[in-house]
């Protein structure tokens, strides 16, 4: 595959010919395809995935105390949000409630409207408005952060990521409602998704340097947005797993902990913790 540095507007890498970032994991065909990818003899695959990285970046950018506390205590953020919007104790949250809260949590990052949320969840627009209102009651600094980001975007006509990459927003003050709302959603999402792109690229650079310094036989073969896939000599797997977790979790100093989950497998379709 070829990786493209400057194709996506948020700074994420994209993959082409073939696009290996787009092979499904949740359907049977995708799983069968992944089984076909195998490491060299004497090597295994190691995957390393940032856990809820965009929500952690939102906590850092907004400095919301409830969001930061949830990550500091390693709480289930979707369960905590569900407890708030459904008015129940966390222990009483059902899987269905948690699934709906997950849509709310990620929808906020992408500037979802009450109408959009109602369609995604199959609920009334009034219910969706209530969910969003309760979310902001729980995480008020997130609302402040979004309002501040939009205000500054309208003034500057651009937003920046954590490492200073600019994304220009020529439509942010447009009289055309659709154009303006798209630019507003872009302004909300870019610092978060672009920040995640900055983070993993920095981690990749640090890992490459560390492997060379230590004479490791491991190397990165694929990046799938918040996840890295590496090919690692079998004899080095334990040490490499430790190095990867260390370098990825300390790639940036944030006000919330970064957490990386690793899996190992003899093919890409059978990765186990």
UniProtKB/TrEMBL annotation:
EC numbers, comma separated: 2.7.7.7
GO biological process: DNA-templated DNA replication; double-strand break repair
Key words, A-Z: DNA replication, DNA-binding, DNA-directed DNA polymerase, Nucleotidyltransferase, Transferase
Family annotation (Gene3D superfamilies): 3.30.70.370, 5' to 3' exonuclease, C-terminal subdomain
Domain DNA-directed DNA polymerase family A palm: 30-236
Catalytic reaction annotation: DNA(n) + a 2'-deoxyribonucleoside 5'-triphosphate = DNA(n+1) + diphosphate
InterPro entries named among the record's database cross-references: DNA-dir_DNA_pol_A_CS, DNA-dir_DNA_pol_A_palm_dom, DNA/RNA_pol_sf, DNA_polymerase_A
Enzyme class: transferase
GO-annotated molecular function: DNA binding; DNA-directed DNA polymerase activity
Family in the record: Belongs to the DNA polymerase type-A family.
The name this protein goes by in its record: DNA-directed DNA polymerase
Species name: marine sediment metagenome
Lineage: unclassified sequences, metagenomes, ecological metagenomes
């Amino acid at each position: 595959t070829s990786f493209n540095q400057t194709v996506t507007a948020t700074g994420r890498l994209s993959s082409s010919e073939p696009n290996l970032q787009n092979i499904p994991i949740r359907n049977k065909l995708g799983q069968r395809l992944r089984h076909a990818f195998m490491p060299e003899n004497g090597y295994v695959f190691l995957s390393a995935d940032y856990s809820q990285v965009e929500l952690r970046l939102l906590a850092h950018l907004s400095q919301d105390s409830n969001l930061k506390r949830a990550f500091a205590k390693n709480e289930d953020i979707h369960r905590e949000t569900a407890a708030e919007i459904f008015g129940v104790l966390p222990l009483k949250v059902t899987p269905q409630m948690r699934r709906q809260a997950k849509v709310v949590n990620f929808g906020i990052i992408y500037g979802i409207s009450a109408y959009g949320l109602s369609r995604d969840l199959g609920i009334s627009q009034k219910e969706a408005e209530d969910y969003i209102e309760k979310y902001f009651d729980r995480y008020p600094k997130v609302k402040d952060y979004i309002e501040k980001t939009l205000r500054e975007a309208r003034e500057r006509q651009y937003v920046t990521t954590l490492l200073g990459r600019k994304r220009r927003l020529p439509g942010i003050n447009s009289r055309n409602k659709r154009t303006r709302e798209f630019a507003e959603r872009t302004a909300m999402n870019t610092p978060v998704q672009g920040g995640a792109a900055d983070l993993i690229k920095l981690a990749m650079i640090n890992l490459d340097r560390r492997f060379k310094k230590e004479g490791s036989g491991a190397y990165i073969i694929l990046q799938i947005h918040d996840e890295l896939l590496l090919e690692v000599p079998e004899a080095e797997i334990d040490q490499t797993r430790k190095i990867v977790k260390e370098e990825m979790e300390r790639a940036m100093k944030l006000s919330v902990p970064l957490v990386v989950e690793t899996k190992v497998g003899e093919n890409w379709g059978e990765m186990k913790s």
